[in-house]
Structures are given as structure tokens and as C-alpha cells.
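Need residues for this backbone.
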């Protein structure tokens, strides 16, 4: 499998996005975030999504010259209208606002509407870390793949949450999870690679396991923890969607199938300034102590090690920065065709 450097991947994504109308600075910012997703192992949310984004842009479904602005504001909160921009740009702006407000208010909640798919949740939860803050991110997914518990109509999405807590000597502890057993992007990757899904990801409308990703339209994803996952998906949708005036429930547009309609995707980010509650250095040392405590637990038979949330992603990041980011053959072919259509240099 071919590998490319982070810089090469960033430059390619930026070329393509500029080729379809994004200003240079916006194209570079989106490329930074998309390539970081790949570098951190979120393969279903990085360059894999580029052909889909381009198709939506070219169909008029995303605004390449948006006016991203704050439309409602309090000392510790804001509501951002994304003007149908790429979600990466909307959430970058929302995170910046949340961090700046939390410097003085101690904590800040920023919601967004009229946005689009923004990649993996961890990207935005991680942003406050550099300011010695904790980040929490939630969103309404960009397509409904989950019915209410016990139902068959898909009225909910994978509605993810990410929480990032900084440490001192150890990596940050970063939880990034969908409210379903698998994010739909993983289903799409399985389909592209010709692989089967494990049982537990999806069931069909008769309640039987569905393991062929190419038949995913015949069923739906399963929530984590049964009704508990359904409850989380519902509540995150209310907080990231309904509260912001964004789409939720039947109003969610399937961006996998509809490339023209306004998705009005909703997100929310919470920045918590550690200094408002404790000495930041002392807190991070205590986080390190918690890390070490978790690692010290005796292991069950057959278990090699205990991992903390985000630890594997950090390991992948180190490996891919050193050795390159893998590009599977099917994806490489698709990106080559995309470059040709847009008229830019190949990856």
C-alpha cells in the first residue's frame, strides 16, 4: 500500500479544494484538518471524504465563499451561523470563539448551525488543549442511520461526542465515539475495501445481523449499550441540533445521497478553562496519575495491555508522521480520477 507524507496529503487536498472554488486560506485550513484526521487514524473522515465533498461543492450543495458569523452572543456562549460552509471551517471558528471566551469566563459553550460534515469529533475537542483547556464536542451526524430503540424508522444519526483532557507527561486522554457501535464511515470503508462487517454493527429490518456493507441500505446501525446509546443519540441531537436551530430527526439530509440540499448540520463545542477550577499544571499531573493508575490494573487472561481513550490514535499519529499515511489502492484510484476531473496535480 502506498504511503504519503502529511505535507503531501495536505498539499493535495488543498489543491483540489482550491480547484473547486475555495479561497486559498480556507482550502489550506480544511486540508490541515482532513489530513490530521488521516494521520490520527480516522481513515473514514479524512481524504476518503474528499470526492464526496467535491461532488457536493460542484452540485451547489456547499458555499465556497461563506460569511461565517456570530448571530447570538453572551459572555460565555455564542451561536455561529456557518452560511453553508464546509463544516471544518465552521467548527474551527466555533472552537476559536469558545477558547477565547473561556479565557475570561472560565467556560464557554458555542453552538453552530447551517454547517456541514466536519470530519472526526476529536479534531475539535482537541483544539482547547493547547490553551490548557478541556474540550467537549457533540454533533448531529450527516445522515440518519439509527431508529429509536425498538423502532425501524431511521430518525437519528450516529451523533458523536468527543472529550479531550490534557496531561503533563502523557498524551491527552481523548474519547471520540459515535453513539452507534460503529460510525457509518467505517461501513463505507468496509464496502470500498470489499470487507465484511462484524456482527453487532448493523441489523436488517427483521432484526437479523447484517454483515455485507454493500447491503447497508437494507438495515440500520445499532446503538452502543442498546437503549442507552439511543438515549445519548437523542440528547446529543437536541443539544447540537434543536438548540441551535439546526436539522434533527426527519429534517436531517442524507449527505451520502443528496448533494444539493442544505444540510443545516448542527454542532456544539464546550471549552473549560482548567485555571478556573484548579492550577493547570497540578491538574495535568493528576491526570497523569489517573493514566498510570488505569495502566496498573491487573489484566484479564488474554489481555495484553490496558489502553486509555485516544492512546491508540496517538500511537498511529506517531507512526504515520514517521512512516507516512497509507492510501489504499481503491482510494488512490479514486483520488487520481478526482485530480484529473478537477485539473490539478495528482497526489
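Answer:
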Amino acid at each position: 500500500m502506498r504511503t504519503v507524507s502529511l505535507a503531501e496529503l495536505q498539499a493535495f487536498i488543498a489543491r483540489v479544494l482550491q480547484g473547486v472554488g475555495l479561497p486559498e486560506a480556507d482550502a489550506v485550513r480544511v486540508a490541515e484538518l482532513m489530513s490530521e484526521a488521516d494521520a490520527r487514524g480516522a481513515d473514514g473522515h479524512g481524504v476518503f471524504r474528499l470526492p464526496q465533498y467535491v461532488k457536493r461543492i460542484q452540485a451547489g450543495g456547499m458555499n465556497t465563499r461563506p460569511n461565517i458569523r456570530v448571530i447570538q452572543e453572551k459572555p460565555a456562549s455564542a451561536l455561529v451561523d456557518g452560511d453553508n460552509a464546509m463544516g471544518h471551517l465552521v467548527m474551527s471558528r466555533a472552537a476559536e470563539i469558545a477558547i477565547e471566551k473561556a479565557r475570561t469566563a472560565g467556560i464557554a459553550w458555542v453552538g453552530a448551525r447551517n454547517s456541514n460534515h466536519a470530519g472526526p469529533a476529536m479534531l475539535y475537542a482537541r483544539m482547547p488543549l493547547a490553551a490548557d483547556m478541556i474540550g467537549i464536542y457533540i454533533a448531529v451526524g450527516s445522515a440518519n442511520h439509527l431508529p429509536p430503540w425498538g423502532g425501524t424508522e431511521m430518525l437519528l444519526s450516529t451523533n458523536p461526542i468527543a472529550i479531550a483532557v490534557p496531561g503533563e507527561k502523557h498524551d491527552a486522554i481523548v474519547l471520540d465515539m459515535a453513539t452507534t457501535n460503529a460510525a457509518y464511515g467505517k461501513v463505507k470503508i468496509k464496502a470500498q475495501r470489499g470487507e465484511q462487517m462484524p456482527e453487532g454493527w448493523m441489523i436488517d429490518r427483521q432484526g437479523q445481523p447484517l454483515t455485507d456493507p454493500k447491503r447497508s441500505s437494507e438495515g440500520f446501525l445499532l446503538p452502543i449499550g442498546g437503549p442507552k446509546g439511543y438515549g445519548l443519540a437523542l440528547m446529543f441531537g437536541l443539544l447540537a441540533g434543536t438548540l441551535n436551530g439546526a436539522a434533527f430527526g426527519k429534517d436531517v439530509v442524507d449527505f451520502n445521497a443528496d448533494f444539493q440540499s442544505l444540510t443545516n448540520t448542527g454542532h456544539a463545542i464546550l471549552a473549560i478553562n482548567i485555571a478556573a477550577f484548579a492550577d493547570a499544571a497540578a491538574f495535568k499531573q493528576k491526570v497523569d496519575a489517573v493514566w498510570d493508575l488505569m495502566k496498573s490494573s491487573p489484566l484479564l487472561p488474554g489481555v495484553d495491555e490496558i489502553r486509555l481513550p485516544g492512546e491508540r490514535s496517538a500511537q498511529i499519529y506517531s507512526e504515520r508522521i514517521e512512516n507516512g499515511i497509507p492510501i489504499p489502492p481503491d482510494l488512490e484510484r479514486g483520488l487520481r480520477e478526482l485530480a484529473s476531473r478537477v485539473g490539478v496535480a495528482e497526489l
